[in-house]
Amino acid sequence: MADSNQVLYVLMPVSFIGSVLNWISFYSIHKLASFNHSFGYLSANQALADALHSTVFLLYFCPMVLLDQTYMKQYSHLCGFLLLFCYELSVLTHSAISLNRYISVWSPLFYESFFSVSKTKSVIFVLWLYNGIATLVLYEKYCHFYFDDSIGFLTFNNSELCSDIGWYGDFLKNSFIVAVVLCFDIITLIGVRRVSKKLKSGMTDATIKKFSRRDRRFLKQTLIQGSVFMLELLTYFFIPQYFTNRWIVFFGTSFAWVAVHVADGLVFISIIFSLKNFCRLIVIICNPEIRNFLLADKTSLRRGTIVQVSSVVVHPQ
């Protein structure tokens, strides 16, 4: 690494923020009745995957490097396995959410057939089962993802098989999934705009403006999230090959891999909420609808419900 203190001053705060944001998001999604549907369950699953990734990094990787623990380094492949499991679960859940959005807009009549609550729970179970088996086989049986003192971060074993697994099983696979997700989300956005034009005849000017702003937020959410994942994949695999400066390599690999889950929580969960039991800690993200749900009075809530009904295609129920 560029310097051992960077773990203390950079990676620890970032992983701590990621843990806090994603655990609070996971908790709040479960507590809010408005998220008791397919989209909510999938969002909670992604928040859980991101929270576990940040927590494992915070509680295992950071102490291992800071304290130079030989015993922890000896079993660092277990940490690497858990981190890859959580990372890939997050990517897979992201793809399921993208498909959820797509069907809700382009095939709303079939939405319940694919994404009822019971079927969504089955989808989540399959994602966990498939990802668990795949990561066990790839990253525990055939190729360890372990801490290498020479580079100061986690890396695959130096063998031809591990090189192939890292390139095809990790980089190309996840890049393909993220690219497909971006395509689905852009097509979904086109569908949202198409539907919004049909609804404009029955909307007031104020509602049309709110709907247009919601479209723009959806586009920003789509492009930022997909771009962040793709950028992280590119920097992680290519920067070490073309740069030797330890700080550049650090920010392109270690920092990017941890920070992507903080960004994912901020951009995707799209919640502004307040928890009374935690001194009304406010996490600022994207959607004002949930802020109104939690912070507004009863009159505002009734008005907000009317707006939400007209925008059901943007946030699947």
From TrEMBL:
Gene3D superfamilies according to UniProt: Rhodopsin 7-helix transmembrane proteins
Keyword Plastid: no
Membrane-spanning ranges: 7-27, 47-67, 123-139, 175-192, 223-243, 255-275
GO CC annotation, single: membrane
PROSITE patterns referenced in this protein's UniProt entry, alphabetically: G_PROTEIN_RECEP_F1_2
Keyword annotations of the record: Membrane, Transmembrane, Transmembrane helix
Chief subcellular location: membrane
Domain G-protein coupled receptors family 1 profile: 18-239
Cell location: Membrane
Domain of life: Eukaryota
Keyword Transmembrane: yes
Coiled coil ranges: none
Pfam families: 7TM_GPCR_Srx
The protein's name: G-protein coupled receptors family 1 profile domain-containing protein
Upper classification of the organism: Eukaryota, Metazoa, Ecdysozoa, Nematoda, Chromadorea
